């Protein structure tokens, strides 16, 4: 094996280290086998690397699909991680204190699958590995790594998500360690490793993640940059010529270079050891030069990224390696043997950890009991008892009701990690003596000094990474954290790709979205959502909820904290809203309910969220008989029986429904026959003027509703036609 | 006036400069008045600054709303820009060669409005300035700057958008200059100035913009960083402690520091002069230390950001300045006089430019004619003649049809600026001898050397900035550019905030979104849209279009290039699709049309985009009589008359509609009574298996459709209930 070729970058201020590191590989008690030191068999490593590359090539060729290039280029990185660097247990893949690994360049998933096979993850059988891109719907080798499968911490693929998730995982460890570790009892000390490609460094999400992780001084995070300088369009320098190392240093990272990432396993292992070194004061970025598709005729070329190498090319690779060109999917026994001790090593770590936790229980019984509950993802089943049974009756913005409802629970229950994208004064989610999650040695110019025990996260003006970090927190271990994010509703469009990933993975994150309508007023159309709810209402597994007042906010929080099958979004108002006295937290949990029933109704008025009170007032004004339905959530309503749904809407009895919501109508056609909805973007006008400006005026709505019902009755409105009752529009 | 306090940062490699710059302020021919040099009256500048700050304070106090702090802190920057630095003509605000200015921190809009008033923009009357946050819906002073108003280049507010738009404006200038300028005839040489706050540096979008602008070496772009170190939650160092200057240098920017941004107008003017200096090789970033709410009791505090200062506080400010504490909205005549020559100066520049262009017409008549068409935003009215009348009849992905349709037009018409977020091989939008937009001295490792004349933009893996740059290109001057972006449809979720801003501003940008359904196959659910179309279908002013085959792709491009009231999105398939022979480009332009009519129909099958062919096949298989409607666009359909809509759907005749689209149903309830739609996220399976996996199988759909129609006829399906015919779900 070559001499370790770890180089410090010219900009790095940290002390240099070189060959002497090789003998300090991994913590001694974690050392699974002979380190990749000077006694290791060079030829054996080469055999492993060659086998790995050819296996990847064959697997992509099999069905003529897949992404071979970067997986092949990262072969040495795989050996360094799964054989030497990471502390994990393939036969106990959900071990609480395992190192977390994320492949942020998720298209290279085959890299991870093949390493899982080699490391002897039980579910990753040979047959399963061969199912990559086959017709098997139960393949454990999908086109991007998926959270449902052993060894995969989070689903990755959309670029930049993985590195942002990794920041969340590292925050989780820091917080748990600061909260529960005691001298001699490091019950949580796992490390987070994340591989990124060129793309994750270009995506804005990745930039946010790097900047924020550097600020947080997440020393338990190591990013391994697979620097192959190739993307789909060609060489990266077609489009990105920044000095990556310098940028990372500016963001507060320590930077190491590995000059030969293709073959120099030893250098990579030395870098990983540096990553795990807890005396660092910064997260570590390892810039590993690799060659996409190395060993093949398309090495270093974009064409090797997303297409199989071709049979002739693969045969030539085999020939150059001195392999049998006819043999496919060949793994020499020596390669399998190379990894055979991994499961036993892992189980030993698991039992050592259990022993430690048992001793911890004796030494710190109360703390250990709390820790155990966190490990099991339990919060008190009666957690909601701290929610007040009733609320002040004066007009209140629903964003303010957040605080009435949750301040006790946030204070008492450590699973809650509450955060905001720089909108603390707007979202009202702090609690008595809340502590900020920040490095303890950070002395901010304003605001209090925080610590890693802190559970209030100032994400900065970085909505996207906030969403993705929350996903990481939720995925750390089921139920250990209940992450809350918050921003203006409109800026959940910035966070949307992360919110979607949470929904796809069924991660229970709660998003609190304020300023959720034109009622936001003078900030104008850039800040007034009219179409965004359609996205979250359409998103599978997502509970999007618009509570009408404090009472419904209580229901929204209760149902959201209890929902474990995906994210929730609680959409609240900037402006004060009346407490109508006819809302119900129990009703909210069903998505829609009858707030006011009448005999022989002529019409059902559907009111929603911040504008529910319009429906109540309109019902009182109308010259015809109007029922009132509160309809805060499509998703919750759709979980109810058809009988319940019909009893709420009563459209099957021939009663037409009219909805009042100043969003575009898309979606309401399922529940209503007509609506007062927006047909354009909003307008900058103070809240007290804007509803009138757009025609949400009780007198005007009275006239239009009466005319509509009359037309409906006399049959002049076509079946299956949704009638738009608002004419006003601006932008 | 203080000695110029421009400092170079330690990291800057460029030569230092200091006092000697003061005498070289602005290009001599652009100098409007005595430079802010040593002869300028210090007291006068102080009077202007004080007046400006107090005016802002009074304006926010008037209606007890608004963002005073940063506008007050930037007073000196305002003087430097509108009095000295920028080349613009307030009485000819759309002058083609004007400098472009963007306020990326758009909440500080009052800063811009007040400067527009001082600079004598005609529409910004005193009465208008006083209307900030009033009840006037026709106020020219909305809560964020809006493109509709004089002097505002693009609507800003959502953070990071402005700086990204500015990159687009600077690209526009570079491209026009490289294409049309000739020795002695710099017909386009305007500069782009952009103010950013702390937030724009944190947002991922801003990071993408800085990285890409540095790569492009946009020497005609100067960013002025209002470095007040305050955001809503407190001091910026609570959440961001990166070395901003070092990061900017790593991204390829030249960095200058201005240490006293509060008072030192001269230093800022010197920095602006450096910005305009065309001998630079990089864009310029000026780090200007300022103090939010300076002069008030809340100076340097977050509370001054988004709330009025308070009457007592304002009175104290006035007292400290020696002003009459009772006077409100007071502008001394001397201050108005200070700006009075601005319009005449601007008109002189305008006429000089017209003179230059007239001489250019004589010297280069053909080029000048083409330039004139660009200035007027004209492309040949018969541009679409290059679209073939018919296409190959073999199965073709609609993404490939992009090339059939547009390669001639892209090649011939220079208004087209085609770009991609690293998906050139996937989107098929290059043309013969296309040239890449890149600095001419860039020699990429792979791919050809480009130039600023290039019209193909490799945006890198930066979807969000791609969308925002395209907005900047479109807003440079109406019709001068027709920007095209491209990516996977799913990654238009990353770009969505920019796409929305384009829709809000009615900017004609065309987004080409490929891999637009589960048919994308093995990439899996991260890359398979199921809910995203709901967002774009709900977005006002947006034409979201899913063409079914090459013929409809032709219609989609034609209608999109001709649509000037907002963006279009052409949503195309990864997979090959049959050419059914019953589609029509003219039909597409109406959003939906009857592709196959039958007498006494039992059902209407609605087919959409990549899955239209399922409707055609199903109609053939059914044991009942089925009409077939192709329905590529809600937005286009809604522009048609109610009569046309009824003639297409015929639901008013009692014929039920069944839609086939593997997206969630949201929205289809308006047009259909039942649907084969997704109820979950997708799944990783090769394209040839995935439709069956989710139940989009002709035999299965035949049975379900027949049962549904039978139930419909016998009345067992409730009115107003949308019937979901697919059971399958995955994630």
TrEMBL record, chains A, B:
The GO molecular function terms of this record are: metal ion binding; transketolase activity
Query: Cellular component terms, GO, for this chain's entry?
Result: cytosol; nucleus
Give GO BP annotations, semicolon-separated. Answer: pentose-phosphate shunt
The signal peptide stretch is none
Name the keywords, alphabetized.
Answer: Magnesium, Metal-binding, Thiamine pyrophosphate, Transferase
Cofactor requirement: Co(2+); Mg(2+); thiamine diphosphate
* Pfam families tied to this protein: Transket_pyr (PF02779), Transketolase_C_1 (PF22613), Transketolase_N (PF00456)
Q: Which residues form the Transketolase-like pyrimidine-binding domain?
A: 396-579
Cross-referenced PROSITE patterns, in alphabetical order? Answer: TRANSKETOLASE_2
Q: Which SMART domains match?
A: Transket_pyr (SM00861)
Family affiliation: Belongs to the transketolase family.
This chain belongs to which protein, by name?
Transketolase-like pyrimidine-binding domain-containing protein
Query: What is the taxonomic lineage of the source species?
Result: Eukaryota, Fungi, Dikarya, Ascomycota, Pezizomycotina
